[in-house]
Design brief:
Structural class of chain B: mainly alpha
Strand order of the largest sheet of chain A: 1-2
InterPro entries (chain B): ABC_transp_permease (IPR001851), BCAA_transport_permease (IPR052157)
Number of strands of chain B: 4
Family (chain B): Belongs to the binding-protein-dependent transport system permease family. LivHM subfamily.
Order of helices and strands of chain B: HHHHEHEEHHHHEHHH
Radius of gyration of chain B: 19 Å
Strand content of chain B: under 5%
Distance between the termini of chain B: 41 Å
Radius of gyration of chain A: 20 Å
Structural class of chain A: mainly alpha
Number of domains of chain B: 1
Strand content of chain A: under 5%
Distance between the termini of chain A: 21 Å
Largest sheet of chain A: 2 strands, antiparallel
Helix content of chain A: over 70%
Organism (chain B): Nitratireductor basaltis
Oligomer: heterodimer
Number of helices of chain B: 12
Largest sheet of chain B: 2 strands, antiparallel
Subcellular location (chain B): Cell membrane
Largest interface: A-B, 43 and 42 residues
Shape of chain A: globular
Strand order of the largest sheet of chain B: 1-4
Main location (chain B): membrane
């Protein structure tokens, strides 16, 4: 990261003057969102509130994949692998020490007696995901395009295999259930805000421009002094940290994690959100995540009433094919809407 | 011990045949349109469910084999015309996402129509007996799978190396534009490659049911991924390499389960995909293809 910073071209005009409009807009938008979440908490049923939390986490997932797949052009399908890692790490940390002894007999002594609250568990989950991504990334990121996609798909299966078979630590196929329900809509909202903020800052910095340069033409980017492989690992690791945290949050929202909770189907759905929104567009990822989450959740009762399970997924897949066919660059291309960029004081 | 090992090897060759049949189609399609067709594995599922339907309709087995070949070919041609032809010329990743979408759509449509309930699938009793030969025994199902697979592959090699269509395919794989300039009907050739590859995958589905006894709408996913691993082992784009890759993978998987203590057998898929990652890193163009300058 550091060498990219030092090698950057002339600083962009954004940071030249003391421009307070951006930060004020950020605080304003967050306050607006928070008050809406508060109002939702007053008036809506707990089902809808959980759904909103799910939507926020899905949006955060899509945005985090935007960083890896969209901005840097690494076609990774590995998000569920990191989510699973994060979910299990956090689950083991927050699980009640009283029940660990009988349920997870192979845990080392110090782990069996620890019982953390959500925030430290979440951070450690993120670190664990990031470390795995660092270890794996050094190897798999030498691959390109669909080879990388399949290798990361393999990673999901490797992680699932470990989670299924490492009985004493993960309780095998039955998974860990009865997790403390630490996560509510506020956690999900805060997480979405942090993920969007971090991704936005990265995108509109020299780092983000370097990432897009790698996406467009790796060789040319290298020639202009960008250390492409280091940048790719960075994008992969940041995406993985966010994914691992999302996994930890999701599993504490639904209070269970099994080896199959985060599957290839989820990887597909997140990729669909990124592609439909436009690879590299944060706003697009949020819009697409919202649309697809609402679509599949509202179709669920229909599926159940007429017994056609799988229908929503067929519709999502068809939507994707149609978008790829008509507008391969997605709804928003690689851009953010002009009004948003103006609001947050970015001139790109 | 030799008895046990012999059985494991027959078992591995049968499993390898299943992978090889899928991997060959995978490799043919990649070789010609440079597209990793993710939906290829789902043709295995289509093949096994069509077999089930044909058995229920009381059709004799040799005819079933032919019908399944035809069903696979038609499904492959349909996928090619409806989805992949309009996308030709777009980027590799776009194509890959599209095939992933097709795969998800096929799987979930099958779930809608057939429900997730696994179905029992049995070859008739005379195909399931055990064969004794000089102190070693093997299941007849495995032998049938191995022999028929080798016959199909031999037929495929005849098509690819002895017919005009095969010449056109090899030319298109070499250089699509040049082949078109030389008067090769490229679209028809690509369609034929999809048809042949998909037919082989569907037959693999027929065998899959016979070997494992149970089928469900999502069964194609893992064989599809493993066929990709087999391709990578042999070198993506090479038909012979895909075949060898399939057999190596089948043997490796069976020996991994058979020779290691019981408690490791759950890790078979983990092992396969670690193998994939290692091979991609060490020899990205496969074990049987000359290393070229271009990296995967």
């Amino acid at each position: 990261m550091s060498d990219v910073k030092t090698e950057q071209m002339q600083p962009h005009s954004t940071d030249g003057k003391m421009n307070m409009q951006g930060p004020i807009a950020v605080v304003g938008v967050i306050a607006l969102g928070a008050s809406m979440v508060f109002l939702a908490g007053q008036g809506l049923s707990s089902y809808v509130i959980t759904l909103l939390a799910l939507l926020f986490i899905n949006a955060a997932l899509a945005v985090s994949l935007t960083l890896t797949n969209g901005l840097t052009g690494l076609f990774s399908l590995g998000h569920p692998a990191f989510m699973t890692i994060g979910a299990y790490v956090a689950a083991i940390l927050t699980f009640s020490a009283r029940r660990k002894g009988s349920m997870l007999p192979a845990l080392p002594e110090w782990l069996a007696t620890t019982e953390l609250s959500m925030l430290p568990a979440l951070l450690i989950a993120g670190i664990a995901g990031g470390l795995v991504a660092l270890a794996v990334g050094g190897a798999v990121l030498r691959l390109k395009g669909h080879y990388l996609a399949v290798a990361t798909l393999g990673l999901i299966i490797v992680v699932q295999g470990l989670a299924t078979n490492w009985d004493g630590i993960t309780r095998g196929g039955s998974g860990i259930s009865g997790l403390p329900r630490h996560v509510d809509i506020w956690w999900a909202f805060a997480f979405l805000v942090v993920v969007v903020f971090v991704t936005w800052r990265i995108k509109f910095s020299s780092l983000g421009r370097a990432m897009m340069a790698v996406r467009e033409n790796e060789l040319a980017a290298e020639c202009s002094g960008i250390n492409a492989s280091r940048l790719k690992i960075l994008a992969f690791v940041i995406g993985a940290i966010m994914a691992a945290m999302a996994g930890a949050l999701l599993s504490h929202l639904i209070s269970v994690v099994t080896p199959k909770t985060y599957s290839v189907l989820l990887a597909f759905n997140i990729v669909v959100m990124v592609v439909i929104g436009g690879s590299g567009s944060i706003f697009g990822a949020i819009v697409a995540a919202t649309a697809i989450t609402i679509l599949s959740e509202s179709l669920r009762p229909v599926e159940e009433s007429i017994g056609l399970y799988g229908m929503s997924q067929v519709i999502v897949a068809l939507c994707l094919i149609i978008v790829l066919y008509l507008k391969p660059s997605g709804l928003f291309g690689s851009n953010e809407p002009r009004s948003l960029r103006k609001l947050f004081g970015q001139r790109v | 011990m030799t008895q046990y090992l012999f059985q494991q090897i027959i078992n591995g060759l049968a499993l390898g045949s299943l992978y090889a049949l899928v991997a060959i189609g995978f490799s043919m399609i990649y070789g010609i349109v440079r597209l990793i067709n993710f939906a290829h594995g789902d043709l295995v599922m289509i093949g096994s469910f069509s077999t089930l339907a044909l058995v229920a309709a009381g059709i004799p087995w040799p005819l079933i084999l032919l019908f399944v070949l035809a069903v696979g070919a038609m499904a492959g041609m349909m996928i090619e015309t409806v989805v992949f032809r309009p996308m030709r010329g777009s980027s590799q990743v776009t194509g890959f996402i599209a095939t992933l979408a097709v795969s998800i759509a096929i799987q979930n449509s099958a779930l809608m129509v057939l429900t997730g309930q696994p179905r029992n699938f049995l070859f008739p009793a005379y195909m399931r007996q055990r064969l004794e030969l000089g102190g070693v025994s093997a299941s007849l199902t495995d032998i049938i799978i191995i022999v028929l697979t080798l016959l199909l592959i031999a037929g495929l090699f005849l098509i690819v190396y002895r017919t005009r269509l095969g010449t056109a395919m090899r030319a298109t794989a070499e250089n699509l534009t040049a082949a078109r300039l030389m008067g090769v009907a490229v679209n028809r050739t690509i369609l034929a490659a999809f048809a042949i590859g998909s037919a082989l995958a569907a037959v693999s589905g027929l065998f899959w049911g016979g070997k494992f006894g149970q089928i469900d709408p999502l069964l194609g996913f893992v064989p599809g991924l493993k066929a990709f691993v087999a391709c990578v082992i042999g070198g993506v784009g090479s038909i012979g390499g895909a075949m060898m890759g399939g057999y190596i993978l089948g043997l490796a998987e069976v020996l991994f389960v058979g020779l290691l203590p019981q408690e490791y057998s759950g890790y078979r898929d983990t092992f396969v995909f670690l193998l994939l990652i290692v091979i991609l890193l060490v020899r990205p163009s496969g074990l049987f293809v000359r290393q070229s300058g271009e990296r995967a």
